Amino acid sequence: MQVFADVGAVDVLTDYFKSGVDFTLQLFTDNASPARGDTNASRTVPDATGGYADKTLTVAGATVSDPAIPQVAWAQQVFTFTGAIQGAGTIYGYQILRGTTLITQELLAVPFTPANNGDHIDITPIIQLGNGDPAA
Q: Is residue 133 situated within a structural domain?
């Protein structure tokens, strides 16, 4: 389940659809469920070992599918590794930031552990706004 951080909710409503506002897609190595009180410092992002690098998501590259369901989607983002990453070594999820403000984060359905040159994980960032918290 995707969880919006309280600190990023205002940014989503005021800036998400403005032209020229970029977002950052990061992978994280913490095996912990996202929480509304999280910030960008709540997760551990891999360092540059193993070829890891954040991805920039531009508003110009986003599409809005159905005005009745506020949803923004970007093209699939491919993280290609040159080998293992240091630290925990396993990717458990991703987060989207605006500057240093956490907007949203989500755990992967299946954790991913890069080990070899050419290993990759594909993420298609989709943000869908709704009315209140989803049913548990």
A: no
**Does 136 map to a domain?**
no
> Per residue in 12-46, pLDDT tens?
655 665 666 788 999 999 999 998 899 989 999 99
Tell me the two tokens of residue 82: 């040159």
Q: Please state, in angstroms and rounded to a whole number, the distance separating the CA atoms of residues 114 and 49.
A: 11
CB hemisphere CA count around 83 (13 angstroms): 5
Reported as a single tens digit per residue, the pLDDT across 57-112 is 887 666 665 555 666 778 899 999 999 998 779 999 999 998 898 988 999 999 99
Total domains present in the chain: 1
pTM, entire model: 0.81
Domain that holds residue 42: 3-128
Residue 126 CA to residue 136 CA, distance in Å, equals 20
**Residues 106 and 94 sit within 8 Å (Cβ to Cβ):** yes
Query: Is 134 part of any domain?
Result: no
Q: How many angstroms from the chain centroid is the CA of residue 17?
A: 17
C-alpha span between 61 and 111 (Å, rounded): 27
